[in-house]
């Protein structure tokens, strides 16, 4: 295995971020790379193309069913998609209850502690970019992602979201 590369795709919801990231990752797996996608969007739609399915159970949903995240096994949350790409969705709380960013933190910590990153070349975080929230900034803030790609269009709200993401990158750039 080569050195692990952790990348993050950020962008406004509906801009094509998940489509762009999944197509990029499909090309990488075609080149022989081993991939793990961590969906960091409460909609849990970051892996639909790779899985050729509507949605998968999320870490937070499964943890709620089992009692806590400590009651989960890696096999419970990981699904294999196109050419063996490993997929996991963080998920989020019910609307109006709790913090979706906390789900991102919980999921990433669970994956790291249980060895999900051990046998892959790339970990890709597909992150919601319209919400300014500490949990969604985790791939940047805690030096998880060394490469960050912002997917956007020329539309005003997409530019606004991209600008906020860039500000977050600058704020946390000193940490790594």
UniProtKB/TrEMBL annotation:
Keywords: 4Fe-4S, ATP-binding, Iron, Iron-sulfur, Metal-binding, Nucleotide-binding, Oxidoreductase. Belongs to the NifH/BchL/ChlL family. One of its GO terms (molecular function) is oxidoreductase activity. Signal peptide: none annotated. This is Nitrogenase iron protein. The lineage of its organism: Bacteria, Pseudomonadati, Pseudomonadota, Alphaproteobacteria, Hyphomicrobiales. InterPro entries: NifH/chlL_CS, NifH/frxC, P-loop_NTPase. Its cofactor is [4Fe-4S] cluster. The keyword ATP-binding applies. PANTHER family: LIGHT-INDEPENDENT PROTOCHLOROPHYLLIDE REDUCTASE IRON-SULFUR ATP-BINDING PROTEIN (PTHR42864:SF2). The keyword Phosphoprotein does not apply.
């Amino acid at each position: 295995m080569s050195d692990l590369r952790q990348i993050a795709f950020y962008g406004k919801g509906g801009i094509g971020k998940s489509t762009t990231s999944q197509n990029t990752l499909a090309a990488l797996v075609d080149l022989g790379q081993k991939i793990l996608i961590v969906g960091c969007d409460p909609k849990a739609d970051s892996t639909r193309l790779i899985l050729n399915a509507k949605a998968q159970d999320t870490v937070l949903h499964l943890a709620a069913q089992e009692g806590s995240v400590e009651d989960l096994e890696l096999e419970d949350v990981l699904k294999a998609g196109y050419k063996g790409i490993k997929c996991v969705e963080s998920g989020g709380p019910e609307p109006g209850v709790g913090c979706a960013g906390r789900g991102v933190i919980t999921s990433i910590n669970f994956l790291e502690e249980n060895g999900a990153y051990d046998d892959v070349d790339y970990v890709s975080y597909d992150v919601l970019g319209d919400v300014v929230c500490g949990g969604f900034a985790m791939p940047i803030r805690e030096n998880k992602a060394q490469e960050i790609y912002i997917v956007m269009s020329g539309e005003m709200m997409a530019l606004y979201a991209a600008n906020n993401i860039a500000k977050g990158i600058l704020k946390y750039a000193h940490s790594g």
